[in-house]
Amino acid sequence: MSNSNVFDDILYSKSVFNNREVLRFTYIPHQLPHRELQINQLAAILVAALKNETPSNVFIYGKTGTGKTAVVRLIGKELEKKAKELSKKFLDRSLEITIEQFENGHNKLWRNIYNNFDFSEIYGQDLKNELTKSVNYIYINCQHVDTQYRVLTHIANAIISDWDDRLPLTGLPTDEVYNRLLASIDEFGGVTTIILDEIDKLVEKSGDDILYNLTRINNDLKNAKANIIGITNNLKFTDFLDARVKSTLGEEELIFSPYNAAQLQDILNQRAEEAFNLDALDPTVIPLCSALAAQEHGDARRALDLLRVSAELADREGANRVVERYVRKAVMKIEQDTVAEVIDTLPPQSKLVLLGILLNEEAGSNKLTTGMVFDTYKELCKNLKMDSLTQRRITDLISELDMLGIIGTRVVSFGRGGRTRLIQMCIPVHSTKKLLGKTDLLKDIINFKPPVQSTLL
DNA sequence: TGTCCACTGGAAGGGAGGGCTT
DNA sequence: AAGCCCTCCCTTCCAGTGGACA
Question: Do A130 and A243 share a domain, yes or no?
């Protein structure tokens, strides 16, 4: 009997990778090529936190994959590191200097902290902990944390260290959450920087009340300071903001322009050095990945994904070198995987609507309207003995599918025939049907024939 | 030029589900 | 247990719309 494990062959087989994680977009390298200007600008703003002064609020614009999040996260890491270093220096020095000498010193930050603590405990662990966390950097991605309540609890919970004191995900009145947040920031002291990534998603869903409150948080804080960094890829985002929020939030603005192919190449080269074994990459691979990503508005995330997936495909085939062929394959794979994931995670009602559209298109209706899709959807529901949603709700689901890029819609008027939306599939009908057919809900009606519907044209 | 169609899409609110406070 | 609050998903209501047609 062999005691080998199914993973053994894969685990110990030769790989082109030295460290795959380096190619993830979430990995933050020590250096970010071609973002030196933005790094310096942001550091110049946030250095105030190290002096216990309030840094300006910052607004960061730039398309997907232009390094906004990476820069902000890198600066955060550096800021916290520096704060710890300074506090350590303070503790070391305080062994040698007297209180008077320290009070006469010029280090405002530590003098402030010192004023709030009993100096007799200077060497205690508690004080040391307080000192090392007096700069707080809280990152929130508003794509998921997209309501006023959630943002407030998220910030508060990032500061509250005791698990039992953490705020619940629902249940409390919002003003109560705000008060507890103030208390936790005040108790923490120092400077709290709140980063709201994809801030446009937050405002789109919940309005700008939350931003109004957060930009005025310093008025309510007694013992601490806070500032906001908003990140968005929507250049017109601030047009929808309340003028007061707009001026307070946009004290400083940073623009991240897209990378060009040469810059993307530098980024990939830097990561590849760490990510791959020697000679594992054909020299044509990085230029190709860069060129393909540059075509799509200079998206570094796309370039990194392409490189990583190409190498994974090479690995799986047991090749010891990544060549151009794998990049071409990777392009296809990434596209298919993205679509499959989006469809798979759709709620059941959206899947039914999509199936309605798909079946009509398959039956040859090339001028599909909202009304026709709704009729087919109702038939599908009847077949499944499910209650159907209203047409109003279905128009929203159709809009969502449109936003996801699964279908394309266009509002048209047929004169007396009325005004409606023309709908068509944007992804291949056959493969989508296969994906939908795999779900338990739809497997029995996947071949339903929609009633013949007359188009308005 | 006014009418009419089949919607679109904003606004308001209901209610289920989850969770807190008293 | 009761009362309250939040989120999410949904319904109901309704003003507004573009363009063919009479």
Answer: yes
- Give tens-digit pLDDT for A2-12: 567 777 776 67
pLDDT above 70 covers what percent of chain A?
A: 87
Q: Quick check: A300 pLDDT over 60?
A: yes
pTM score: 0.79
Quote the tokens at residue A36: 């030196």
Determine the pLDDT at residue A122: 44
Average pLDDT, chain A: 84
Note whether A214 and A194 are within 8 A (CB): yes
A70 and A126 together in one domain: yes
* Distance B16 C1' – A170 CA (angstroms): 14
Considering only residues 323-382 of protein chain A, which place a Cβ less than 7 A from any atom of strand B?
369-372, 374
Q: Please give the radius of gyration of chain A, using alpha carbons only, rounded to the nearest integer.
A: 28
Q: What number is the average pLDDT over the span A122-135? A: 51
Give pLDDT, residue A249. Answer: 85
Q: Are residues A314 and A357 in the same domain?
A: no
CA of A211 to C1' of C11 (A): 31
Q: CA at A150, C1' at C8: how many angstroms apart?
A: 14
SS3 call for A107: coil
Asked whether A235 and A258 are in contact (CB, 8 A), the reply is no
> Alpha-carbon distance A138 to A62, whole Å?
20
Both A198 and A323 in one domain: the answer is no
Q: Which nucleotide is nearest to A347 (CA to C1')?
A: C9
**What residue ranges in A83-167 does DSSP mark as E strands?**
135-141
Nucleotide with the nearest C1' to A175 CA: C5
Number of helices (H), then strands (E), belonging to chain A: the values are: 20, 8
Q: What percent of chain A has pLDDT over 90?
A: 49
Residue type, A361: E
Range of lowest pLDDT (A82-86, A198-202, A367-371): A82-86
H or E element, residue A149: helix A148-159
CA gap A326, A334 in Å, rounded: 12
Residue pair A50/A82 in contact by the 8 Å Cβ criterion: yes
Q: Do residue A250 and residue A271 come from a single domain?
A: no
Whether the CB of A143 is less than 7 Å away from nucleic strand C comes out as no
Residues 158-217 of A with CB under 7 A from strand B: 168-172
* Statement: residue A104 has pLDDT above 60: no
Domain of A384, in residue numbers? 346-437
Indicate if A80 and A178 belong to the same structural domain: yes
Q: Say if residue A326's pLDDT is above 90.
A: yes
